[in-house]
Q: What sequence folds into this?
């Protein structure tokens, strides 16, 4: 579809109050998500396996300065969500950044944004069901069940929950987030108690001496801290769910600013605070990537069943991620399908106002992941996680590019920015984009997986180009049909 055709279609599109263009993909949704659901979706997006499981290996590699890496990456993640929050208040949409890409970058921009996001969540879904199967095998009751069978069961359960109604999805995410937050708060209380009482952990008293006696904050130098950021940034993936969920809440102008602004202190408290506590309790060399750092600490002080409790929490985090992936891709694909950039069946909704077509397409890719678990159970997780990383970075970059175009139009007097704004534009957007691209470049320092992942970029680009030429005529017809309907 030509840029002129897209601009014409957008100019003629029905408008919301205030002259803001509407998105045809937003029609038909319920508004059943409450403020507590959106707030907890924001928390759930900020807390996941990247902290509960991934922090151990990163502490071992980078040392106590990992807290600085989490803080820096958290600030840029906040910028991305703040930019998305401003776009949401300008025009709430279940199509989220894909809908904004369509308005500010044209249908080609929406096409790339949508399919890269689909790549992110469909491969993340495979990683999630793989993780769920691995975590379930922790308990002897399930060790005899094949990994692929457990993965299939997990996928089926979350699929059913998503298809029932958005309210059920919101409730599930609410309680998943409650479990994660409660666990973190409980651990932090235990850690603070150990510090205050100087109770021995692993044979020595905790405190600043643990850091100073083991090489300081940078025991291996600055470079490991810089390199570990490529993994840390992915720990914040899913924060953009706030933008998607806003399209199904009755009062986004009240809910979204609170949810977005609270992300910053949650990052500071849960991520940075937890890592600082971990570093004060044990030296970085005591942690490993094979075990949750929280389990490492609790086992050192003889807490019974610490492994069982934390395994349940990490299992919950993986289920939450899978649940969110099916939810968000269903909405994104429907927005694309209404514009002709995705298969027609992904626009279909059931009686509960759930876009089941898009959810089933994502689920179908996850079923391929079940096959991957059957063929390569030991490698499945690492393979798909690195492919998903490309989708995360591209999604966040597109959000910032959309915001740049949005601000440019506002300064030209073509639209009005809401009072809830991303500060420091355009410097904030450009700095964030540069940082994200630098994180992508850092993957080249990993010869085992990172470099191979980067080699996928030309292949993904070729598929996107081929796909665009296959559907561009359908996109043009969709735009023309919309113009025709408006003319009537």
A:
């Amino acid at each position: 579809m030509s840029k002129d055709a897209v601009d014409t279609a957008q100019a003629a599109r029905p408008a919301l109050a205030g002259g803001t263009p509407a998105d045809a993909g937003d029609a038909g949704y319920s508004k059943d998500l409450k403020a507590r659901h959106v707030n907890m979706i924001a928390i759930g997006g900020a807390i996941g396996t990247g902290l509960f499981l991934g922090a151990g290996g990163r502490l071992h590699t980078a040392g106590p300065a990992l807290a600085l890496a989490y803080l820096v990456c958290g600030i840029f993640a906040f910028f991305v969500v703040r930019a998305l929050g401003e776009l949401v208040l300008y025009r709430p949409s279940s199509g989220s950044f894909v809908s904004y890409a369509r308005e500010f970058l044209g249908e080609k921009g929406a096409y790339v944004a949508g399919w890269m996001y689909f790549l992110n969540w469909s491969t993340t879904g495979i990683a999630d069901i793989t993780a769920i199967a691995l975590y379930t095998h922790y308990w002897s009751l399930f060790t005899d069940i094949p990994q692929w069978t457990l993965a299939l069961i997990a996928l089926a359960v979350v699929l059913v929950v998503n298809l029932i109604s958005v309210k059920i999805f919101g409730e599930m995410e609410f309680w998943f987030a409650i479990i994660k937050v409660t666990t973190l708060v409980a651990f932090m209380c235990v850690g603070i108690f150990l510090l205050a009482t100087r109770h021995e952990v692993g044979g020595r008293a905790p405190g600043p001496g643990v850091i100073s006696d083991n090489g300081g904050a940078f025991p291996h130098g600055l470079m490991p801290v810089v390199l570990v950021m490529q993994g840390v940034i992915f720990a914040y993936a899913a924060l953009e769910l706030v933008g998607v969920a806003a399209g199904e809440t009755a009062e986004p102008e009240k809910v979204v600013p609170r949810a977005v602004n609270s992300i910053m202190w949650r990052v500071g408290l849960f991520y940075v605070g937890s890592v600082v506590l971990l570093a004060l309790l044990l030296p970085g060399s005591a942690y490993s990537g094979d075990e949750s750092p929280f389990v490492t600490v609790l086992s050192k002080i003889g807490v019974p069943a610490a492994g069982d409790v934390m395994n349940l929490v990490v299992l919950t985090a993986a289920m939450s991620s899978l649940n969110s992936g099916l939810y968000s891709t269903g909405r994104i694909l429907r927005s694309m399908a209404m514009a002709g950039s995705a298969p027609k069946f992904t626009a279909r909704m059931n009686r509960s106002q759930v876009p089941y077509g898009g959810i089933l397409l994502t689920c179908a890719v996850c079923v391929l992941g079940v096959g991957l678990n059957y063929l390569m159970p030991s490698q499945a997780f690492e393979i798909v996680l690195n492919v998903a990383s490309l989708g995360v970075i591209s999604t966040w970059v597109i959000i910032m590019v959309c915001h740049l175009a949005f601000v440019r139009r506002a300064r030209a007097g073509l639209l009005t920015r809401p009072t809830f704004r991303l500060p420091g534009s355009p410097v904030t957007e450009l700095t964030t984009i540069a940082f994200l691209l630098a994180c992508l470049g850092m993957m080249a320092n990993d010869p085992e997986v990172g470099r191979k992942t980067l080699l996928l970029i030309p292949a993904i680009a070729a598929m996107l180009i081929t796909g665009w030429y296959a559907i561009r005529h359908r996109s043009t017809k969709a735009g023309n049909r919309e113009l025709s309907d408006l003319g009537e």
About this structure: Residues 33-439 form a domain with the Amino acid/polyamine transporter I fold (CATH 1.20.1740.10). The first helix runs from residue 3 to 12.
